[in-house]
Amino acid sequence: MSRIVSLLKEKCPNCEQGRVYETKGNVFKLELPKMRKNCKVCNFYFEREPGYYWGAMYFSYALAIAQAIAVYFICAFIFEDPYDYRTVVIILVAMLLLSIVNLRYSRLLWMYTFTSKEK
Asked: Does this model's pTM top 0.90?
């Protein structure tokens, strides 16, 4: 359970104490999150090799689909006709607003998948 809490708090996958991101980013200001090069606590290097986070796109895709399905069911509950054009617009807006969150957490999920905790 501690590992999941550390992931949600965006902590280092190696020591679970240092922060991974310097800034969280802002979709309204068109700012992407800024990731640190290494952990301030254990000096763990976050980008293992060039192109390391390409695989995180699969996690990002899964998160986006899960969010779209959740928003669809919420809209189906609110609107009488779930195939309304408003549902599509709301799903697109939700996916756009959650894109920065997806970027952060897909990278974290990728790191946590391939990093074991320091003993």
From this structure: no
